[in-house]
Amino acid sequence: IKSFDEVSDQLIKSLKHDQYKCINTQSFLMDNQSLIDDSSDIYIKSTKSTRNWTIRELEDHLIELQRKKMNTSGIISKLLTKYCTECLDSERTMTIPVRESYMKRISELESIYFDKTKTTGFPSLGVIAILIDYYSRVELNLDKVIHYISLSNDIDPKFKLDPHKCVSVIRLLIRKNSFNKAIELMDSLGGYDVVPNYMYRRVRDLLLDAYSLTNFKQFQYLVNKLLKNKYVDPSSIVLSLIVRKSYQDHGPLHAFETIKTILVQWNNLVGMFPIIRKLLRDDCTEELKQVLIKIGKIRSRTYAYEQLAFALIHERRLSEAYKVCQNISRSTFEEHCQRYVRELFYFPSDNQNLDDESSPINNSIRNDIYETDYVFDTNTISLIYFIDYFEQYPSHTRHLSIDTLFYSLFRAYEKTNRLDEFTKLMREYLSKYVQYLSSKTKDAFSQAGITLPIKSLSSPKQSRKTNSHKHERFLQDHDYEEDSNSQNSLS
């Protein structure tokens, strides 16, 4: 008969042995958890051990599992997710050879993953969702998208695709001339209580494509639907696109009626300045006069002429601008600077977000979008022409000055969180005009981290430039005369 101490020692040794075996078993299961598909669960189990693996590590692990003739569905699901994510996240920076190799590998893994003679278990809805996103944004394959949406419904009728992925599907439907189906999908999704920040880029891409591929009625309906469902805010960026599309399809007078509708609906007066500037460049004198009269009825005659003066200055037609409006208030000028800067950043001028560089869609958007680069001069900031205006007519700009211009520009860029762009654009001008800046403007620049050239801190009066600018004919002197008809129209 064993003593009590001997029995206790034996029990302790036995418990330690069992505990050791349990730990080893748990470790083995964790390392191989990704290899197991639970047929009662449609989701492939993930593990911490493989979650952060690189593509190369996952590929090596797949080879090892295939060599051992083990289940590979778990590791293939991770590889598919990894490859698709890389293609989606790096679509702007990935080289063409790398992208093509990734797309080829996705096709290979996809065929293996859904072949039940090679893998076991249910397909993961997470993998299906990423494939829907991939075929919507990268391959632009509508048949594949429809197939996987149908498959997800077969697996789980309650499954709902993420709304931001649905936006990409809507975009693809529009690119494939299926506008009604796109609207049906939007109706089925419902809306948000608050516009989510992560939707911006996808909605932007959707609007760019829809602008080029739909007519004005369709585009206006789509934008209103996005606004109603709170996929996007009713900002000047979005609302101005409606005005641009109206102008493109129906001309300036129809566009102005669209502006009035937007004013009533959203209390936002947008798009007038681009219309004026476009009419100036196209030399549409009579249409411009009608637009100015209507602007005067909505706001005021002074506001209409200020807008015309701004457009003329942007076109460097300074003598005509001087005739139109000799007195521009500082508050109006600062508001104009802010509007102008916002216009610069409506959408990237290079439109890198488009998937197919050679597609006619891309070319039409790059050359059009209400001629964004043409009208708003995104490559050179034409507000600098105000410097010429101030220097040429110093006695008629009242309290406006070069200092006012730079300070107003600074505040406008600051509000749009694009001070890096301001610094880049102003670098060459600051060295030349730093002497005109007030201490208030210099302090604002310094606090924002903008380095100023070392020059005199004094701010001498602006000198009148003697060089003359070429006069471009737009309106004759009698066009500015205040005849009784124009007074009645603008009152």
Give a brief outline of the structure.
It is built from 25 helices and no strands. With 491 residues, the chain is mainly α.
Number of DSSP helical runs = 25
Distance between the termini: 118 Å
Share in helix: 55-70%
Query: Unreliable runs, pLDDT <50, ≥5 residues?
Result: 29-48, 347-379, 455-491
Rounded to an integer in angstroms, the radius of gyration calculated over CA atoms is 32 Å
What is the β-strand count? 0
| Apparent shape | elongated
Q: How would you sum up the major sheet?
A: none
- What number of structural domains do the residues give? 4
Mean pLDDT: 75
Summing up helix and strand content along with how strands pair, one would put the structural category as mainly alpha
What would you note in describing this structure?
- The chain has 491 residues and is an all-alpha fold.
- The protein has four domains: 4-31; 33-152, no CATH class; 162-233; 234-401 and 462-491, no CATH class.
- It has helices at residues 4-31, 48-51, 55-67, 73-89, 96-113, 125-137, 142-155, 163-175, 179-189, 200-213, 216-228, 236-250, 252-266, 272-281, 285-298, 301-314, 318-324, 330-344, 360-367, 372-376, 385-392, 402-415, 419-433, 439-447, 484-490.
- Residues 29-48, 347-379 and 455-491 have low confidence and may be disordered.
Provide the descriptors you would attach to this structure in a database record.
0% strand; mainly alpha; 491 residues
Question: How are the secondary structure elements laid out?
Answer:
Layout: H1 4-31, H2 48-51, H3 55-67, H4 73-89, H5 96-113, H6 125-137, H7 142-155, H8 163-175, H9 179-189, H10 200-213, H11 216-228, H12 236-250, H13 252-266, H14 272-281, H15 285-298, H16 301-314, H17 318-324, H18 330-344, H19 360-367, H20 372-376, H21 385-392, H22 402-415, H23 419-433, H24 439-447, H25 484-490
Helix pairs in contact: 3-4, 4-5, 4-6, 6-7, 6-8, 8-9, 8-10, 10-19, 11-12, 12-13, 13-15, 14-15, 14-16, 15-16, 16-17, 18-22, 22-23
